[in-house]
């Protein structure tokens, strides 16, 4: 049995929805602003990593921020990384963490709209709770904005092994 779930995103407010894939999908609308939702894997992402924003130390932590390697079923975890703005001006961004697996998961995509101040490092830990054992991949990526899907740093994967 295979499960095919697809992540959709609102380009206006970055809200998202994960739905089961169907042969003829109807138009999905954003719950917040009623704009059309787009499949995240069909957006024409411009791949350009100018190194003006850098990502380091992508990791899994427990809720107190301690780095962990193994995750138990239903354990609440954070996926996080240090994001540095190497520019001398502030940078608006959308920060996204997408949890992927062959296992069906109800909440897979987390998004944050924020501004990273000039020369500063920030992190936006995103909480996940995985209720089946197996291997997952958390992909951390970022765009300038919903309408300007210019990648600000190279997407970075974190492997999450969930054990009983
Ligand atoms: Zn919206």
From TrEMBL:
The organism's place on the tree of life at top rank: Archaea
Entry protein name: Uncharacterized protein
Protein species of origin: Cenarchaeum symbiosum (strain A)
